[in-house]
From TrEMBL:
Gene3D superfamilies: 1.20.1260.10. InterPro entries: Aromatic_CoA_ox/epox (IPR052703), Ferritin-like (IPR012347), Ferritin-like_SF (IPR009078), PaaA (IPR011881), PaaA_PaaC (IPR007814). Keywords: Oxidoreductase. One of its GO terms (molecular function) is phenylacetyl-CoA 1,2-epoxidase activity. Its EC number is 1.14.13.149. It holds the Pfam family PaaA_PaaC. GO terms for biological process: phenylacetate catabolic process. This is 1,2-phenylacetyl-CoA epoxidase subunit A. GO terms for cellular component: cytosol.
Amino acid sequence: PADLDPETFVELLADEDRVEPRDDMPAAYRKTLVRQIAQHAHSEIIGMQPEGNWISRAPSLKRKAILMAKVQDEAGHGLYLYSAAETLGVDRADLIDQLHSGRQKYSSIFNYPTLTWADVGAIGWLVDGAAITNQVPLCRCSYGPYSRAMVRVCKEESFHQRQGFEILWTLSHGSPAQRAMAQDAVDRYWWPSLMMFGPPDDDSPNSAQSMAWGIKRFSNDDLRQRFVDMTVPQSEALGLTLPDPEIRWNDERGHYDFGTIDFTELFEVVKGNGPCNAERMAHKVKAHEDGAWVREAAAAYAAKHAVAEGA
Ligand code: 3HC
């Protein structure tokens, strides 16, 4: 497909058509999609680590089975998204190399530790809840393969969010120690979950272009507000308090007001200075290196069979 001039492209998008891999598109549209889809995929794969940390220590066989299914889902989401990125003419091995060398990012939220079992509940309820809020609009993204991948991903995220809520429900209605553990996890994961939505709109370099091209349907702050509005009533149902004394319903706005987010924390974590950045990347690189033999064997098998079938 050829590079399309942005003006013609915006007219084409006006018909609300989907852009497909073989369509002409502006090089910058392709570039920003590779950037976002690759980093989305990286986030899913790195996101397996915090929760995976608790698979061998889940409190029951039921919780262990659910957590294993969830972590497997995240792996699948990552592979799905790498496939969507590859429709844009990039090679997954190169994307993974860019992740390992720090040239591409992954979501800040996965650089926080999972200190107790309750963190698995807080991640499911808050992190997957935030992910759903961000990913449902992406089902209507202008790029076909990405929007279709999101339909499948969102169905599985709903299960992730519900199981997280149920873990916190069990703990918050358990012993005082369990209740305190649930509250501590929510205290630690609330603000970093709000940061998942990105910098404020007036400090979001990609938003204007992504919104003009139908990639981002709502701004970072709009989706953050939507997440707060959805989550506050759920926290009341759980009997847990969100660590922000400024949260209160604002009738005029029709939304919850909430406190000021410390975005320097987001920028520091994105720069590599979060609690677990080094650990997450070291684990990821080691797993990739340990898995090299599998990739080599699969490639040798494919080559042998290609010859056999006279390809
Ligand atoms: N963590 C890491 N980097 C972040 C970030 C975060 N929470 N928020 C923003 N950034 C980066 C952006 O990638 C961009 O850097 P880049 O130009 O080098 O890519 C820079 O900060 C400025 O941010 P912008 O708002 O200008 O960037 P975007 O328009 O791309 O918006 C986004 C950021 C909202 C994360 C958008 O990229 C997006 O919607 N991505 C798809 C969804 C996604 O990646 N979610 C991550 C979580 S996946 C997940 O939760 C898995 C679930 O199963 C648990």
